[in-house]
Write a structure and sequence with these properties.
alpha+beta; 3 helices; five-stranded antiparallel β-sheet
């Protein structure tokens, strides 16, 4: 691995089940994550994914690439446009730095309406990963 290396993209279909299951798993019971009618009443065209689900998907993307020995040390993300059901989010990433067995990776997730998530992940690499 080296600075500038790009990770292969990961396509994640955004389904109602994923949105609702992620909200339940993270104990986020806000109606905009599970009730389409109430989400519309609040100005959203549909339910949308919560930040904790996005955070988990970003973490999965990184650990799937670096392997089971990789340890996430820091995940710092910012949300942009929502992830609505029926869309697909495509995660891409590039290695910003590699130093002393730790990599900093820049992550971007885009969907059909724009950039959903941006951020960096600091990951301790498994032995021999740097």
């Amino acid at each position: 691995m080296r600075t500038g290396e790009e990770l292969p993209p990961l396509e994640i279909p955004i389904t109602r089940t994923l949105i609702v299951a992620g909200a339940i798993a993270s104990r986020d019971y806000q109606d905009v994550h599970h009730d389409a009618e109430l989400a519309r009443q609040k100005g959203s065209p549909d339910i949308f994914m919560n930040i904790l689900t996005t955070n988990g998907l970003v973490g999965r993307y990184i650990t799937d690439h670096f392997g089971p020995g990789a340890v996430l040390r820091k995940v710092a993300i910012r949300l942009g446009v929502p992830n609505y059901p029926g869309d697909t989010m495509v995660l891409t990433a590039s290695v910003e730095t590699v130093e002393d067995g730790t990599a900093t990776v820049r992550v971007v997730g885009e969907n059909g309406i724009g950039r959903h998530v941006t951020g960096t992940v600091t990951v301790a690499l498994p032995s021999g990963g740097a």
